[in-house]
Design a protein that fits this description.
Number of domains: 1
Number of strands: 5
Strand content: 25-35%
Number of helices: 2
Length: about 80
């Protein structure tokens, strides 16, 4: 349990560091170089347009083409 929570927190910190504006774009390489683990997230949001966002608490990401990711922050 503790190991999973540590991975979630690490992923969350990485997203917060890269997404300071509330919405930004980054590459898969940059996420992986910081230690991001795509296996760990807290929930999935499926939009009406068919896009899938993976969230870690209030920070999320969506896969774009060419190994780019859109980073977003959910307003609570």
């Amino acid at each position: 349990m503790r190991n999973i929570n540590n991975k979630l927190r690490k992923n969350y910190r990485i997203l917060c560091e890269l997404n300071t504006e509330g919405k930004s774009k980054t590459t898969r390489t940059k996420l992986l170089s910081k230690g991001f683990d795509f296996e760990y997230f807290t929930n999935i949001l499926q939009t009406k347009t068919g896009n899938t966002y993976y969230f870690l608490y209030d920070q999320g990401y969506m896969t774009l083409e060419n190994d780019y990711y859109m980073l977003v922050k959910k307003d609570i």
